Structures are given as structure tokens and as C-alpha cells.
User: Fold Threonine/homoserine exporter RhtA from Xenorhabdus doucetiae.
Amino acid sequence: MRTTPQLAIALTLIATFFWGSNFQVTKFALASLPPWTASVERFFYAVICIFIFLAWKEGIHGKVLKQNWWTFIVLGAIGVAGFNGAFFVGLQSSNPVTAALIVATTPISANILEAIINRRLPGLLRVVGMVISLLGVALVITNGELNLGGMAQVVTGDILIFIGSLGWSIYTVGTRVLVKDATPLETTSWTMLFGAIILVFIAFFVESPVTALSSATFESHLACLYIGIGGSTIAYLFWNMGVAIRGAGKTAIFFNFVPIFALIIQVMMGNIPSLPQVIGVVITIVGVFLGQGSITGDKLFKGILSNR
Assistant:
């Protein structure tokens, strides 16, 4: 198979489709599984697949683990156990499209966090993009009622997913500044393993995972298999193939398709959003484009002048 830019775009879109579909499919997993147990089952499949690929592609090197084991544990706790625990618990009450929009703001908060760590002011457009994207999320959550009554509609799940997205931002920045001499695939594999182990301990502490797994429906197990292999391993691999072919900057823009795919899937399932919610989705995506630097001030100004 020839690695062309067109193939990279196709693989990147498939990755974002998997990520966008995760939000809806997780609802099926949670139909008969408690959240922490569902998260454990998901990463059981994901860890097996990612380590098989790591062994085949790069080999498993003990030196990398010895050098970064403590960092891998911390990042696994925050970015894998923390984020996915918040994700699964949050989706018990949060709407999948709302959750996708909240997660879509993660790259901006990661960029702002990195600027703070490096002791430099974040770019004005990044801050403006974050504010705009959060306004769009608020429109979706409140169905256009940006007042005290509307904000009272914000469910605990939305707050948990937002906290989880901040955890993912910390994880993203941490993999850049804390991990030493490890490839992205190695970092992902080891943090995923330690995160999964932590999830197992939490599941046994707050739930009864053995009983839950044995009594869950086939559909819930199938959903966990899907988000474990497709929504985790394949999505990550396809995304990184896109990065290798087209570069990180050009590929990062496609992250904005995640909430779009989540919305399309929700509509296909017969759940039609209201007009204020559709407007909120558009505002959020524009804000994310701004915050990621995909739309510069010059481009925005020229676009306004040309009525585009």
C-alpha cells in the first residue's frame, strides 16, 4: 500500500470517525455495565492490541520502562484512568455530542497549559478560541438559554467530562516534557498499561466487576470491544500514520471532525438537535480552529472582508 497524502487523509478521517463514534457506542456499553468496569473491559482489549503492535513494530525495550516508569504511572493515572473514568461516569448523564464538543476543546487547553509551563503568555487567538469554543459548548448544554435557568441544566456528567478533558491536556503536555527517549507508541503503550491497572483497582474498590461482567449483555461487551480495538488502538495507529505522512500541523486540524461525526451519528440514530445546539456546535468548532492556530488573525480578517 502506497503512503500517499490522499491515503493519509482517509486514515485520519477514519480515526476521527472512530473517536466520534466512541461517545455514542459508550452509551451501549453503559446500558448493562457500570462505568469503571466498562472502562476496564475497554482497555483490556486496547492494551493487548497496542502491545502486540508495539512488539511487532518497534520491540519492547526494558530500558525505556526503567527510565520512565514513574512518569508512565503518573501519566497513566491522569490521562488514561482519570480521563476515561471521568468519560465513562460522565456519559451516564451527559449527551454524547456535548461530551464530544467538550473533548474537542482539549488541544486548546493543552496549548495554553504548555505556554504557562514554558513561562510565556499564550497567544491572544488561543485564549479567544478557548472562550468562543466554551461559549459554543454552553449553547449546546443549555439549548441556547445562556442564563441562570439554562445553566442550571448543566449536568454533573458535563462537569466530569470537562475535568477529564483537563486531565487529558495535562497528559498531552506531560508526554512532551516529562517522557525521556521514548517513541510516541512506547509512551502510549506503557501509559495505557499502567492506566488500565489503576482502573482495575478502582473498579474493584467501587464496583463488583466480576459480577458485572458476567451479567452484562452481549451488546455491552460488543460495545467495549469496539471502543477498545476500533476507538482506541486502530484510531491511534491511523492517526499517527496520518501524522507521519502529512505532518502534525496538517493532521491536527482533522481533530475538529470528532464532534461532527458524533453529531452525524446522533442524527442517524433519530436524535435531532435543536437550532441553538447546531449553532453551538458550529461556534465550538470555529473556536477550536482559532485556538489551534488553524485560523490566523490575517485569515479571519480577510475572510470577514470577503464575506466568506
